[in-house]
């Protein structure tokens, strides 16, 4: 029993730490004036959401999502209910690849901003009025 | 049923062309070759989307394409109905005219292969957004569209304005993408499926399908409010609707003029389309059969308020602009606001009016950007007061500026009048007289804004010197003509039937759901199931 309580506790702890990480990164995106820190915060937010997606596919007391051969004894409903869901992991893989491309582009733009303005401080690069 | 391959070929072809053009640039250095190849690719995409549209219309129910043969809840599917096929074909048509205009605008530009690569990436993203029948694939396509747009806004990468606008757009676009990713994952956690047809079936209790209990095990109602709230943050960002409009007046003018036309005329529609697809088909907030129908008053209130604020705010902002392209960009926010008020009503007439307004706005806005772009190019400035009256030298440019402005304002017999009139009818039908006031007031204020541009670009001081000859080239004629024809052809007797089919297929989602379930059961039982 104590192991299961610990597992649930760890799961809840993971969830709260993920939400806290997302909150901190949103603070970084909104409040930090440096473009570099904004991009770092954005990647942290992306990672937090990716881990959250994997967390959503996770089951306590889970089994691996693999059926070796088709066995009539296996209760398919029970298996579907307890196996770790592999689909969110596939989604995260896609999201990581897309995130790589977008972050690379953002870093290039930040470099270009630095070349043109000589600073990465958004308070001093603001020429457009929105 | 035989798969309709043109559905899947159109985006795939465009992505292939987008990657092939920079590779070709290693061997071929003549810009003309790329202009010709791109025109051929744009025409091929138009032919494919038209073929798909004709097929959907002939069949009378949505067409489902299984990627790699995987059936719906397991694999990614494209599901094309009369609504998405119409928007996709229309997008491909306007892109053709933009490609012809680019031939004039970027004649000697050394970056032409990369420009076209991004433009076709953008078109592939748009077609993917319209065609996809999968909630997560929509995320991928939003990102494909997004990254092509950011690249095109930053096309003039040594201009401070372009780089700053592109950073703002790309940064918040990446954030919006993450928000939608969370929405997609939460959809999966609630509904156990990412296929739009299956999520829609789970939302409506009368659709039961085999193994439904394996798929949907989560807390559906709790997930939906969060999913719709998060997804709409992204969709309003993409559509440039208040309060997520802040990037649009910077990013649209900073891009090359043909791209301004594409961003303002076509890309913003993707946000409106996705919002309509989610509210009507996927979760059925506006569908009385859906278990989420009780949410509809909240969405009507929020979206019509957001749309009304966008329309009034943007039309007022148009008055104080000194930059011609910024003025037109604000007009985009205004029109998207009207489109959002149209479909927020939840009636078939409202959807029809919103769809109609998407079409007339896209043609009018693309034409206005491209024709004012000629004046900007010849005058060498974007300040409205210093624009030269190119309209006096080139009748087609002058007529385009005047007619597209008047269509955007809503003057009969141009398309914009009929779409605004059907918005008016939809507001009256639901008794929303305050929205009628918003429609009339914002159009009236916007008229003053357009008049400033028309006054200096058509009736002002004519230009002189060498540059004048450029305003009379054939490519301008060829690119403006299709859009001018559209402005006049978009009237109820000609397009009324297509619009009714489109709005009918969105509001009555049964056909969409049945097609997805049928494909699944065909796979389960291994035999064709009657349509």
Largest sheet of chain B: 2 strands, antiparallel
Quaternary structure: heterodimer
SS-based structural class of chain A?
mainly alpha
User: Nearest-angstrom radius of gyration of chain A?
Assistant: 21 Å
What number of domains of chain B?
1
Global structural class of chain B = mainly alpha
Q: How many β-strand stretches of chain B?
A: 2
Low-confidence stretches of chain B: none
Q: Specify the number of helices of chain A.
A: 4
Name the helix and strand elements of chain A from N-terminus to C-terminus, one letter apiece: HHHH
Strand line-up of the largest beta sheet of chain B? 1-2
Order of helices and strands of chain B: HHEEHHHHHHHHHHHHHHHHHH
The rounded distance between the terminal residues' Cα atoms of chain A is 58 Å
Biggest sheet of chain A, in brief? none
Strand content of chain B: under 5%
Distance between the termini of chain B: 9 Å
Topology:
The complex is a heterodimer of chains A (130) and B (531).
Chain A: H1 2-31, H2 35-57, H3 76-82, H4 87-117
Chain B: H1 5-24, H2 31-59, E1 63-66, E2 77-80, H3 82-105, H4 112-131, H5 135-153, H6 160-191, H7 196-203, H8 212-215, H9 220-239, H10 248-254, H11 257-282, H12 296-319, H13 324-344, H14 348-379, H15 395-409, H16 415-429, H17 433-458, H18 474-489, H19 492-507, H20 510-525
Antiparallel strand pairs in B: 1-2
Description:
- The complex is a heterodimer of chains A (130) and B (531).
- Chain A has one domain (2-117).
- The relative contact order of chain A is 0.12.
- Chain A has helices spanning 2-31, 35-57, 76-82, 87-117.
- The model of chain A has no long low-confidence stretch (mean pLDDT 84).
- Chain A is built from four helices and no strands.
- In chain A, helix 1 packs antiparallel against helix 2 (35-57) and helix 2 runs antiparallel to helix 4 (87-117).
- With 130 residues, chain A is an all-alpha fold.
- Chain B is globular and about 75 Å long.
- Chain B has a two-stranded antiparallel sheet.
- Chain B has helices at residues 5-24, 31-59, 82-105, 112-131, 135-153, 160-191, 196-203, 212-215, 220-239, 248-254, 257-282, 296-319, 324-344, 348-379, 395-409, 415-429, 433-458, 474-489, 492-507, 510-525, and strands at 63-66, 77-80.
- Chain B has one domain (5-525).
- Chain B has 531 residues and is mainly alpha-helical.
- In chain B, helix 13 (324-344) packs antiparallel against helix 14 (348-379), helix 13 runs antiparallel to helix 17 (433-458) and helix 14 crosses helix 19 (492-507).
- Classes of the chains: A mainly alpha (130), B mainly alpha (531).
- At the A-B interface, helix 2, helix 3 and helix 4 of A face helix 5 and helix 6 of B.
């Amino acid at each position: 029993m104590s192991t299961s309580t610990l597992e649930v506790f760890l799961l809840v702890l993971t969830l709260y730490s993920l939400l806290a990480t997302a909150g901190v990164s949103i603070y970084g995106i909104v409040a930090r004036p440096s473009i570099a820190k904004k991009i770092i915060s954005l990647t942290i937010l992306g990672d937090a959401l990716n881990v959250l997606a994997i967390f959503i596919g996770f089951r306590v007391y889970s089994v691996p999502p693999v059926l070796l051969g088709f066995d009539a004894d296996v209760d398919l409903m029970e298996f579907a209910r307890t196996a770790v869901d592999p689909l969110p992991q596939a989604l995260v893989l896609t999201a990581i690849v897309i995130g790589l491309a977008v972050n690379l582009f953002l870093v290039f733009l930040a470099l270009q901003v630095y070349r043109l303005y000589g600073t990465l401080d958004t308070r001093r690069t603001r020429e457009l009025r929105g | 049923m035989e798969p309709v391959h043109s559905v899947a070929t159109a985006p795939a072809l465009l992505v292939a062309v987008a990657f092939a053009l920079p590779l070709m640039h290693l061997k071929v250095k003549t810009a003309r070759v790329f202009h010709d190849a791109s025109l051929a690719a744009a025409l091929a995409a138009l032919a494919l989307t038209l073929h798909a549209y004709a097929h959907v219309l002939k069949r009378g129910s949505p067409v489902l394409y299984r990627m790699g043969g995987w059936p719906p809840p397991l694999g990614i599917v494209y599901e094309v109905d009369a609504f998405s096929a119409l928007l996709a074909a229309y997008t491909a048509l306007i892109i053709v005219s933009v490609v012809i205009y680019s031939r004039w605008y970027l004649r000697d530009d050394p970056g032409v292969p990369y420009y076209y690569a991004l433009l076709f990436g953008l078109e592939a993203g748009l077609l993917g957004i319209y065609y996809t029948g999968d909630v997560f694939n929509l995320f991928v396509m939003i990102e494909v569209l997004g990254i092509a747009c950011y690249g095109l806004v930053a096309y003039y990468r040594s201009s401070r304005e372009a780089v700053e606008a592109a950073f703002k757009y790309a940064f918040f676009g990446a954030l919006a993408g993450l928000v939608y990713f969370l929405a997609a994952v939460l959809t999966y956690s609630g509904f156990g499926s990412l296929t739009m047809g299956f999520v829609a079936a789970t939302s409506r209790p009368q659709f039961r399908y085999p193994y439904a209990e394996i798929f949907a095990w989560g807390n559906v109602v709790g997930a939906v409010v969060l999913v719709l709230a998060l997804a709409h943050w992204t969709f309003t960002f993409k559509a440039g609707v208040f309060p997520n409009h802040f990037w649009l007046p910077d990013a649209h003018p900073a891009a090359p003029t043909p791209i301004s036309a594409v961003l303002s005329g076509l890309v913003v529609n993707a946000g409106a389309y996705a919002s309509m697809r989610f509210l009507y088909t996927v979760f059925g907030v506006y569908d009385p059969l859906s278990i989420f129908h009780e949410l509809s008053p909240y969405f009507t209130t929020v979206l019509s308020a957001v749309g009304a604020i966008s329309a009034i705010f943007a039309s007022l902002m148009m008055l104080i602009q000194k930059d011609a392209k910024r003025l037109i960009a604000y007009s985009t926010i205004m029109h998207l606001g009207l489109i959002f008020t149209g479909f927020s009503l939840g009636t078939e007439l409202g959807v029809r009016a919103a769809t109609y307004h998407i079409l007339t706005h896209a043609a009018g806005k693309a034409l206005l950007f491209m024709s004012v772009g000629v004046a900007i190019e010849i005058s060498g400035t974007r300040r409205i007061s210093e624009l030269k009256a190119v309209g006096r030298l080139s009748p087609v440019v002058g007529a385009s500026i005047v007619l597209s402005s008047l269509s955007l304002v809503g003057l009969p017999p141009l398309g914009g009048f009929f779409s605004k009139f059907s918005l008016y009818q939809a507001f009256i039908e639901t008794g929303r007289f305050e929205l009628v006031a918003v429609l009339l007031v914002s159009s009236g204020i916007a008229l003053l804004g357009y008049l400033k541009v028309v006054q200096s670009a058509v009736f002002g001081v004519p230009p002189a010197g060498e540059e004048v000859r450029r305003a009379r080239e054939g490519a301008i004629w060829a690119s403006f003509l299709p859009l001018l024809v559209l402005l006049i052809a978009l009237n109820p007797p000609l397009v009324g039937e297509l619009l009714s089919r489109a709005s009918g297929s969105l509001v009555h989602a049964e056909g969409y759901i049945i097609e997805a379930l049928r494909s699944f059961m065909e796979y389960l039982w291994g035999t064709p199931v009657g349509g």
